[in-house]
Specification:
This protein has 478 residues and is of the alpha+beta class. Among the domains are: 11-41 and 181-215, no CATH class; 46-163; 329-471, Heat Shock Protein 90 (2-Layer Sandwich). Helices cover 47% and strands 15% of the residues. It has helices spanning 9-39, 46-57, 72-80, 110-115, 180-217, 219-229, 250-293, 299-323, 336-353, 373-390, 441-451; strands at 58-60, 66-68, 85-90, 95-98, 118-121, 132-139, 142-149, 332-335, 357-361, 368-371, 396-401, 406-410, 455-459, 467-471. The strands form four sheets. The protein has a five-stranded antiparallel beta sheet with strand order 4-3-7-6-5, covered by helices on one side. A five-stranded mixed beta sheet has the order 9-11-12-14-13. A hairpin with a 4-residue loop joins strand 3 and strand 4. It starts with 8 loop residues before the first helix and ends in a 7-residue tail after the last strand.
Length: 478
C-alpha cells in the first residue's frame, strides 16, 4: 500500500493562487472581448471624433467649392469643444478651414503630408502648438484630407493629458468582410504574447511572497505545535494558548484543549481509584497475614504466608506507583553512600536467608544528591529485591556507590537478555511467567529516577549476571 505523504499547506496555496490568478485573468479577457464583440463600440478620442463628424459635414456647393455644413452633430460638438479648428483640402488643393488654426498647420504641408492617409502630428516638448490629426477621408465632396484638433494650444488642457493612438487592421476577404480564418491564429498568438508575461509575473510574485506570508501567518500555529509536542503524562494539565492561532484553526485548538482536560480528569479519577483500592487492600491483607500466622507450621502454611507476603508487596507497589504522580517538594540533600548502606543493612538478613552473600562497596568519600530520600530508598530496595528474587539463591549480590552519583546492583544470576532490556521496564512484565515478582519493581525505579532527573540502565559486558545502574544528578551548591 502506497504511503500517503502529507500535503504542504504553503505550496498548495501557492499553486492554487497561481491557477486562480491565471483563470481570473483569462475570464476577464474573455468577458471583455465578448462585451466588445456584442457592443461593437467606436473607440474615438476628441480629435478622431472631430474627423468622423467632419466626414459627414463636408460637401460642395453648386459652384463646386468645398463647404462644411453646420449639421446638428457638428453644432453639438462645437458646444462641447468651442476651440475646434480644422483644414479640409481636396486633391486639387482647394481648402476650407475654420477656427484659430495654429501657426504651421495653415501653411502648405507638402506632398508627403498630402499623401498620408492617417497620422497624428505633434511637436517637441516646450512647443505649445497642439497635437492634431491628419486623415484622408471619403466624403460627399470626394477624397478630402482633414487636419483638425479640438484645441488651439497645449496650455488649454486641464492639467494632465493622456494620448492613446492605436489602430487595428485585420485581414479581409475580397468582399470587405474580416477573414477570420487568417485573423484568429494571429489573434491567439497576440493574446498569448500579451497575457503570458502577465501570468508569469503574477506567478513569480505569488511564488515569492506567498511562502513568506503563509509562514508568518502560521507562525503562531507552529509555536502551538511545538508546545503540544512537549505535553506528556507529567504535564497533562497544560492548555495550548489560542492568542496567536488563526481564527480558522482556533476551534481545533480549543477542541484539543477540551480533550486534554477530559483526559486529565479521567487520568486523575483512575489514579484515585487505584490509590483507594491499594489502601483498601492493605487492611484485609494484614488481617489475612495475622490469621495465617496462627495456623500450625507445615509446608502449606509456609506457602500461604509467602503468597500473602507477595500479595502485600504487590499492593504496596501499586500504592507507591500511584503516589509517584503526587507533587513532591524540592527534596533534601542526602549522602547516597550513607543512604544505600542503610538499605543494604536492612536487606542483609533477607538476602542471607535466601542463600546469597550481600556485599556493599561504597565510594571513598560522601556523594551528595538532592532527592526525595524515601523514593530513592524505594528505588534501590526494588533493585536489591529484584536481584534476590531472580538469582536462584546462589552467588553474591553487590551494591556499589561511585563518586559520579551512580548506584549499581550486581548479581551472579542468569542475567537479562539484551533484547529484553527495554521490556523489563514495562509494568507487569516478567522474564519468567512463574516468577514470584509482580513485574512492577523496575518500572517504579525508572519512574523515580526520571522524577529526579536521572535514569536507570542495564549494563552489558563480559561479566556473569545482571548489572543495573541507577544514575542520579549530583548536588552542586550554588
Amino acid at each position: 500500500m502506497k504511503k500517503i505523504r502529507p500535503r504542504s499547506l504553503q505550496w498548495v496555496l501557492v499553486r492554487r493562487l497561481i491557477l486562480l490568478q491565471a483563470a481570473t485573468l483569462l475570464i476577464f479577457i474573455g468577458l471583455f472581448t465578448l462585451v466588445l464583440w456584442v457592443a461593437n463600440p467606436r473607440l474615438l478620442i476628441d480629435n478622431e471624433a472631430a474627423v468622423a463628424i467632419l466626414k459627414s459635414a463636408i460637401d460642395r456647393d453648386a459652384d463646386g467649392k468645398l463647404i462644411v455644413h453646420e449639421t446638428e452633430e457638428l453644432k453639438t460638438f462645437l458646444q462641447e469643444f468651442p476651440k475646434l479648428w480644422y483644414i479640409a483640402r481636396d486633391t486639387n488643393g482647394q481648402a476650407v478651414q475654420r477656427g484659430d488654426v495654429p501657426i504651421g498647420y495653415g501653411n502648405d504641408t507638402g506632398d508627403l503630408v498630402k499623401a498620408v492617409d492617417h497620422a497624428t502630428l505633434g511637436f517637441r516638448e516646450g512647443d505649445l502648438r497642439p497635437e492634431a490629426v491628419v486623415s484622408k477621408i471619403d466624403t460627399k465632396a470626394g477624397p478630402i484630407q482633414v487636419i483638425t484638433s479640438t484645441r488651439a494650444s497645449r496650455d488649454e488642457n486641464e492639467g494632465l493629458e493622456v494620448n492613446i493612438d492605436m489602430q487595428v487592421d485585420m485581414a479581409r476577404n475580397p468582399d470587405g468582410t474580416t477573414a477570420w480564418i487568417r485573423v484568429i491564429p494571429v489573434l491567439i498568438i497576440v493574446i498569448i504574447a500579451l497575457l503570458l508575461p502577465i501570468i508569469i509575473v503574477m506567478g513569480v510574485t505569488t511564488l515569492v511572497t506567498t511562502p513568506a506570508v503563509v509562514r508568518r501567518s502560521l507562525a503562531g500555529l507552529v509555536a502551538i505545535a511545538s508546545q503540544a509536542g512537549r505535553i506528556d503524562i507529567n504535564n497533562r494539565a497544560m492548555q495550548l494558548p489560542i492568542e496567536q492561532v488563526p481564527s480558522e484553526i482556533t476551534p481545533l485548538v480549543q477542541a484539543f484543549n477540551h480533550a486534554l482536560a477530559r483526559l486529565g480528569q479521567g487520568y486523575d479519577q483512575h489514579n484515585r481509584f487505584l490509590t483507594d483500592a491499594a489502601h483498601e487492600l492493605r487492611t484485609p491483607i494484614a488481617i489475612l497475614r495475622t490469621r495465617a500466622e496462627l495456623l500450625t507450621e507445615d509446608p502449606q502454611s509456609a506457602r500461604l504466608l509467602q503468597d500473602i507476603e507477595r500479595l502485600s508487596h504487590l499492593a504496596q507497589q501499586l500504592l507507591d506507583r500511584q503516589l509517584l504522580d503526587q507533587p513532591v517538594g524540592p527534596g533534601e540533600v542526602v549522602d547516597l553512600v550513607e543512604l544505600t548502606g542503610q538499605i543494604v543493612a536492612d536487606f542483609a538478613p533477607l538476602a542471607i536467608a535466601a542463600g546469597y552473600d550481600l556485599s556493599f562497596e561504597p565510594a571513598p568519600k560522601s556523594v551528595h544528591a538532592q532527592v526525595n530520600a524515601l523514593q530513592i530508598e524505594q528505588a534501590v530496595a526494588n533493585l536489591i529485591r529484584n536481584a534476590i528474587e531472580h538469582c536462584d539463591g546462589t552467588g553474591t549480590i553487590t551494591v556499589l556507590v561511585d563518586n559520579a552519583g551512580g548506584i549499581e546492583v550486581r548479581d551472579e544470576g542468569p542475567g537479562i537478555p539484551e533484547e529484553e532490556h527495554e521490556h523489563v521496564f514495562e509494568p507487569f512484565y516478567r522474564l519468567r511467567p512463574r516468577s514470584s515478582g509482580a513485574g512492577l519493581g523496575l518500572n517504579l525505579t525508572r519512574q523515580i529516577a526520571r522524577l529526579h532527573g536521572g535514569r536507570v540502565d542495564i549494563l552489558t559486558g563480559p561479566w556473569r549476571g545482571a548489572r543495573i545502574r541507577l544514575q542520579l544528578p549530583l548536588y552542586r551548591p550554588a
